Amino acid sequence: MNDRQPFEFIAGSPALCLVDTMGNRGGDRDGGAVIERLPDPAALDAWLCAAGLSSQAGDAANRKDLDEARTLREAIHRCGLAAIAGEDLPAADLALVNRAASAKPLRPQLVAGRIVHLAAAPVQGALSLLAADALALFVDPLRDRLRQCPECRMMFLDTSRPGKRLWCSSAQGCGNRAKVRKYRARQAAAQNGGNGT
Fold first, then answer.
1. pTM of the full predicted structure?
2. How far is CA 51 from the centre of its chain?
3. Per-residue model confidence as pLDDT tens digits over 96-145
4. Which residue of 7, 10, 127, 165 could cross-link 158, Cys pair, CB 3.0 to 4.6 Å?
5. Do residues 25 and 34 touch, judged by C-beta distance below 8 A?
6. How far apart are CA 145 and CA 89, in angstroms?
């Protein structure tokens, strides 16, 4: 992530990208501190815009919308953890996700040569789409592809062909750091072995 684009959309699912707006859930990255990427309604507006679920940043969110988005995010997270563990989804969380999915979703419209997504209640419409996306993750075959990065705890959908992806990001993120640590450990072991220690 960087200052220009404070959000990453690498989870393989819009709902999981929402979940990942709470960063470093118990992981080692950034000193173990949890990172809230939706600290205020303006950040929610910016995230919805970056996710393609709002026509422009600063569109519509208020404090109640932020609370609803965070509540939905955490319910999806808990359901995702249960799915990964092969457990039943928490009933209260599933009911919350189902309620959010039942709201009128955003609808695409062609305006001035581009597609925009509109609804009478834009934030609730966006949350409805995110909740519906989450529901699809909790049933086969996608349920078996839900993963959580062992380092940063990011939740993601494994879209790799063999279905054996372990890390949130192999090239730049946790996977690369893990490979570097293993390489350095092998080098240190080889050096210590060569020195007779």
1. 0.83
2. 11
3. 999 999 999 988 889 889 888 888 889 999 999 999 999 999 999 999 99
4. 165
5. yes
6. 16
